[in-house]
Design goal:
By secondary structure, the chain is an alpha/beta fold. The protein is 39% helix and 14% strand. It has 20 helices and 15 strands. The protein has helices spanning 4-10, 76-93, 104-116, 131-136, 149-153, 157-162, 193-198, 212-222, 241-251, 270-284, 292-297, 300-305, 319-322, 363-374, 377-383, 398-410, 421-428, 447-454, 458-461, 467-494, and strands spanning 15-17, 26-28, 67-73, 96-102, 123-126, 164-165, 176-177, 179-181, 185-192, 235-237, 309-315, 332-335, 345-350, 353-356, 433-436. The strands form 4 sheets. Strands 9, 10, 11, 12, 13 and 15 form a 6-stranded mixed beta sheet that branches. Strands 4-3-5-14-8 form a 5-stranded mixed beta sheet. It has a two-stranded antiparallel ribbon with strand order 1-2. Helix 2 (76-93) links the parallel strand 3 and strand 4. Helix 9 (241-251) packs across helix 10 and helix 18 runs antiparallel to helix 20. The protein is globular and about 65 Å long.
Length: 495
């Protein structure tokens, strides 16, 4: 733990976006950097997990001396399901487990407080982009001795690689495994079928995602003043930059960094500027999204739940809330993001992982608990909705996800939005779909992305600046943050 004090002195709490409960705002998530999970608000109606749904869940071990703390962020329905698994774990093993849940907005600050006190929870969230720094700072326990190779090899390949670190570069599939995935996620697009019906529009074709021009035209037809007061109160989409921007950037063949992730290259990059301007014009020129001020007053996620939005980002963890009529009383389906120059619908795949503290006194018990959350078949049946009817994720276990689980979604046994194949297409890649781990995954921290968010991008969304002007202004700050991250990486390697 020799570098912990240095790390804490150098730490800046990143305000990055979380890819999870599409309902998040920005999150202060320094180390969890859970770029892919969570929600800034605890949303979704409360649920009950029936005892029969847990009948086959059991861990065959005696951990009666173990006293574990689990610290994560979660939506209300997620919290309930995880608590039910923890209860079965304690019942089966005799362990004591304290379960602490917060919002994604608060998670980073609270985790930093744990680190400052040198009193880490036994189990906590870490995103792929934060594995290297957490390992270098001595916070994470390598899991290789606690898992069998067959189990790990049955995870989705990309997410299994994302949590490995060889001391040089994380996310390459080399080195020890430091987390088990909560899930393998993707940010698909959801659409409100009721609004399409009211507008007499055909539903999106999952086999052929919209082009940018087609998407704009559909959004215009979905944007309305429904109560006749002269103010728009229904919009085609709600594209918060923190959630949707990547899909437009990458589908246009653009990128933030150079190939070795050492230089920010957005200034003057035609594909990037074009994607950013199109994204901004949806708001400031075409008016098919809420304005910056309207979004501040009521976020896009809540507007989606209220039936005011035609298209909205949908994470795999959101399905349980969207299928709950108390939360979302509308019919809905899944479709692809619109395509730019590449002709391929792209979005960020991602994950957040269950890490075990290097300081835990109970490594075997902690490893078995996160395995119940991540790789145990019965646990996955609970979390993916087969036994509970509340889907929090696509199963991590590939043969189950592609076999029984998918078959039961398609026959209606497991409630899910229409067109689940879109999710699988982003996971595995097709000629029309590609899901990717974004560039923050491969840099030592995401401060350079935070610099992009904090530079005043809202002036582009409200039309006061062009995308080209903003990129020229913000690139130096982004580069400085990236250089600082690479210096931290070099210091860690030297030590």
């Amino acid at each position: 733990m020799k570098k912990k004090v240095l790390s804490l002195l150098l730490t800046t709490v990143m305000a990055i976006s979380m890819l999870a409960g599409c309902g998040g705002e920005e999150a202060a998530v320094e180390d969890s950097a859970a770029v892919e999970e969570g929600s800034s608000e605890v949303v979704g109606a409360s649920i009950e997990v029936q005892e029969e749904a847990l009948a086959d869940v059991s861990v065959e071990a005696d951990y009666s001396d173990a006293d574990l703390t689990v610290f994560i962020f979660a939506q209300e329905h997620e919290k309930t399901v995880y608590q039910s698994l923890i209860d079965k774990f304690t019942e089966s093993t005799g362990a004591t487990v304290t379960f602490e849940v917060t919002t994604s907005d608060e998670y980073g600050q609270k985790l930093l407080a744990y680190k400052s006190a040198d009193d880490m929870p036994d189990i906590f969230y870490v995103g792929p982009e934060a594995v290297a720094s957490n390992v270098d700072d001595g916070y994470l326990l390598p899991l290789d001795d606690y898992l069998d190779a067959e189990t790990v090899n049955n995870l989705w390949g990309a997410v299994g690689s994302a949590y490995r670190y060889d001391g040089v570069t994380a996310g390459t599939g080399e080195g020890s495994l430091y987390c088990l995935p909560k899930d393998f996620s993707t940010f698909a697009f959801a659409y409100n079928k009721d609004l399409f019906d009211e507008a007499d529009l055909p539903y999106p074709d999952p086999a052929n995602p919209y082009t940018w021009d087609e998407f704009l035209e559909v959004c215009k037809q979905l944007t309305k003043d429904t109560d006749g007061d002269g103010e728009v109160d229904q919009w085609g989409t709600a594209n918060a930059l923190q959630w949707a921007f990547d899909a437009f950037v990458y589908t246009n063949g653009a990128h933030f960094l150079n190939e070795d992730y050492t230089k920010v290259v957005i200034d003057g990059q035609e594909e990037f500027i074009e994607a950013f301007q199109y994204f901004a014009d949806l708001t400031c020129k075409h008016g098919v999204t809420p304005t910056v001020e309207q979004d501040t007053a009521l976020g896009g996620y809540q507007r989606w739940l209220d039936g005011q939005i035609g298209f909205y980002a949908c994470g795999t963890w959101d399905v349980g809330a969207f299928m709950n009529k108390d939360t979302f009383p509308y019919e809905w389906g899944i479709c692809g993001w619109p395509t730019g120059k590449t002709g391929v619908s792209m979005t960020r795949n991602g994950s957040v992982g269950f890490a075990v503290s290097a300081d835990t006194e109970y490594p075997e018990a902690a490893a078995d608990l996160i395995a119940l959350f991540s790789t145990d078949l019965e646990g996955q049946r609970v979390l993916s909705g087969e036994t509970t009817g509340v889907s929090l994720q696509i199963p991590n276990i590939m043969d189950y996800a592609k076999g029984d689980y998918k078959a039961k979604v398609e026959d209606g046994s497991i409630p899910y939005g229409e067109n689940i194949d879109v999710i699988y297409n982003y996971f595995e890649g097709t000629d029309k779909y590609e899901g990717i781990f974004v560039e923050t995954t491969y840099t030592y921290n995401a401060d350079w992305w935070t610099a992009f968010l904090q530079g005043g991008y809202e002036y582009v969304l409200n039309g006061e600046k062009t995308a080209a002007e903003y990129c020229a202004e913000v690139q130096p700050a982004m580069q400085a943050a990236l250089d600082a991250a690479n210096e931290l990486k070099a210091q860690a390697a030297a030590n």
